């Protein structure tokens, strides 16, 4: 669906500003490298390596996208020489050098020693002459020869005609994706070496920082950081990021797929409580899209109005039955007169007709819902203590859940609005008007709404300007208030608040009240939670204590006796911190014999048969593998429990 | 006067203030044809002219030499190849893969027999301290290279570290030691004044340098850095001259103009809080339009997910509280412990002075669950947050064995950082359990033990008798006493914090 693509492109757009700044920085520093002429100033200055410190926030999974688009951008517009390295590939200086050289030169770099030995055979056959020494001087030589063949071609755009788009000598960009994870020693050495070649090679570093820029100072001593010329770039905070995503994807009637309050809360909760990752949020969105269209057959009707109407006409009998079984539809039926009810329950053609009508009203409902929501948010987000939430998503969830005007918070918000000062109220109303004008596709009814708001504002402005005459008048106004006589402003303000209240009550009905809302709304929050926020420990414990949950033994092929490991697990729950293996074995043998239908007391002479012994040993080692017990040296023939609690 | 000193005047002109060292070196190197001492070790601080003097000497006297920067040599092969290539210029060096010192010696002898030395050859190893980490026999081998290859070769080691830290084992060859002392203030002045700006008189520049040294000499003696700073700030110094507000002779006026500027530079650009380019741009702008440029360390705030914050706070508590006290802090019905000998003697020194202690994962999670206000399922993402805190270097993992069963961690952030995190929202009540003994003591005080207040308020309590902490009064910040449901962390009373300690 378009939603998915839109989400991804939106994410790229959000980083655009920072990336543009970065690009400008790289361009500037590359330019300054080549016009480093012979004047006194530049001769005297120590040559520093231009470095961009990119503060990206702690949402590590999202960085990949940022770096990918950054590399692409640099590649396309500035330089073909971009190498991006990650800490986990570069545990030592050697690997770092190798990776950087490899990515810049696009060839295999010889480091000699062990690992080169390993792939010796097939590389010498491939391209023996291409092996290069792993040193920066080799890189310098290569750079000289590569730039001599001017103009430098972008490897990506080799076919396109725009060849001379790069500078004469494009900069060499090295990106350190996760600065925190690099070993400081490796980084220091690399910077030291690079600083020796800064006159021959237009190097530019980019540090990806997740925490705060002071990390640089923590990792690099002054002697090294003095070799860098660090400039800071800060990305949007991830909460702003999320706000934009929600705003653009959900608070619009453009996309028809919607989350119910629970699902949205689960996803936002994962974001705020666990990872701050917009990528994961979008993955959650994708998952729910998939689930919705997979599990709800009526989701064919979740599309643009015209298409949906056509689809509704083509519904088959089973689908009509499904519609009739929708709770929201049943509620709708109950509200109708008896003749109509009979019609709705019997005639499938009639249902299709009604369905079309209901779909139309569903579209209309959403068209009005979002502008009204935004207006309410504009008014309530300036109130002290934010009774209805600071972020629009909080208000949205509230409106999805229940009738917002029946809540206590709403009442207090309205009371606070009734106390707003003139200038604040006027700015808010102007914003509301903007929101309403923006939704041009409104029907006439909306239009009157818009016009009346305008009228309100004009009214407000009018007496306002006359008040402005003197301070004296204002004082008189206060006087009026004291005598409990309402000023014209107060009257108008009350009118406005009543109007807004009315607006909310007509348009901000929760979607559950709308017939056929199930077609648009995905509400299975349990599934989403299970998939995105897995609880491995709970799953293992469930599997061990109730194996039938997972075995799903409907066909009866699997034996109904509990698996050995489950018996072992249940027995071990009864023990303390140390478990005597022999006692455990005996207990197991008793249970297992009983399960086979034999008399457990029949074990002759306390001897356990070998098969059971072997099964026991295997089950215990499986339990050890799962991390429930471990061998201990504290006591012979004992194992230690690693979990608390009993059954 | 021996012949080899005939170059001395020329060299001292090139290399000011290093006359004694040049003389020693010249005498050591001796006549080109003669064998020289096998190895020389030169040490001195950064930018004390070690490499510059050595290289200029070798170049000026046209001696065959090779310079190797050991930082660059990621492998031995690279080092050997570089040496052989520059000394013999042979393109057919056939070092085996992963060469050892003996391979190098063998090849050297082979090449040397074809091309015996007419003059002493010099191998200069810069950053020689790194040789220690490379291979055990490398350093002793290079020290005796002359013996090993039976050629007229001398190895010069350059390092910032004294020889005592090198000495590999007994029986190794002792090199000749030569120390390059730091430049004195007068010497620095002399050297820096040499590169005067062509558009101004040398005297002016010299006086500028003495002002500069007056500000910076106490913090920085690095010649390279001083030269850089001099270049960066010189335009500002000349500004009154350009505008015609002062003449070159108005020394006092110029000084008044530049001094505050240099002091500011010391706090920003010298520490690389602000990059040199930004500094220059800022200079060009007019005073008023410059917004205060924030340095790197101004951005210390880190935004973390909700549970990560709690995990970090829990880690902090686990690292700085003795494990014995957990029961007392985090259980509802802990047994009564007498307060007098609750903490053992050695625990009475502030835990913050002793640094973080390692703690197992179990303990972290136990504290986490009791600190966090709601019920949290032990989901996979809680665990992955721990590992991402490790990647962010906010926690460190200690000990590499037994990673599966019970990994151990240490908290790597300071109290200030944790407090900043806690003050983001209502996390601070979690910090209440810091077991500094004084806090504990105050917790028993009826005035101090406010159920939801943060540690600092508790600390302030009994001294100030009521909810009017001393520190706040001293700094004159009006603050409300904490309401029951809204505890406040008074973040900005660091002096008071120390005072109370």
TrEMBL record, chain A:
One of its GO terms (biological process) is DNA replication initiation. CDD domains: Orc3. The keyword DNA-binding applies. Keywords: DNA replication, DNA-binding, Nucleus, Phosphoprotein. Its main location: nucleus. GO terms for molecular function: DNA replication origin binding. Component of ORC, a complex composed of at least 6 subunits: ORC1, ORC2, ORC3, ORC4, ORC5 and ORC6. ORC is regulated in a cell-cycle dependent manner. It is sequentially assembled at the exit from anaphase of mitosis and disassembled as cells enter S phase. Component of the origin recognition complex (ORC) that binds origins of replication. DNA-binding is ATP-dependent. The specific DNA sequences that define origins of replication have not been identified yet. ORC is required to assemble the pre-replication complex necessary to initiate DNA replication. Binds histone H3 and H4 trimethylation marks H3K9me3, H3K27me3 and H4K20me3. This is Origin recognition complex subunit 3. The lineage of its organism: Eukaryota, Metazoa, Chordata, Craniata, Vertebrata.
Automatic annotation (TrEMBL), chain B:
Residues 304-423 form the Origin recognition complex subunit 5 C-terminal domain. The keyword Nucleotide-binding applies. GO terms for cellular component: nuclear origin of replication recognition complex. One of its GO terms (molecular function) is ATP binding. InterPro entries: AAA_16 (IPR041664), ORC5 (IPR020796), ORC5_C (IPR047088), ORC5_lid (IPR048866), P-loop_NTPase (IPR027417). Keywords: ATP-binding, DNA replication, Nucleotide-binding, Nucleus. GO terms for biological process: DNA replication initiation. It is found in: Nucleus. Residues 205-272 form the ORC5 lid domain. Residues 15-156 form the Orc1-like AAA ATPase domain. The keyword Hydrolase does not apply. PANTHER family: ORIGIN RECOGNITION COMPLEX SUBUNIT 5. Component of ORC, a complex composed of at least 6 subunits: ORC1, ORC2, ORC3, ORC4, ORC5 and ORC6. ORC is regulated in a cell-cycle dependent manner. It is sequentially assembled at the exit from anaphase of mitosis and disassembled as cells enter S phase. Belongs to the ORC5 family. This is Origin recognition complex subunit 5. The gene is RELN.
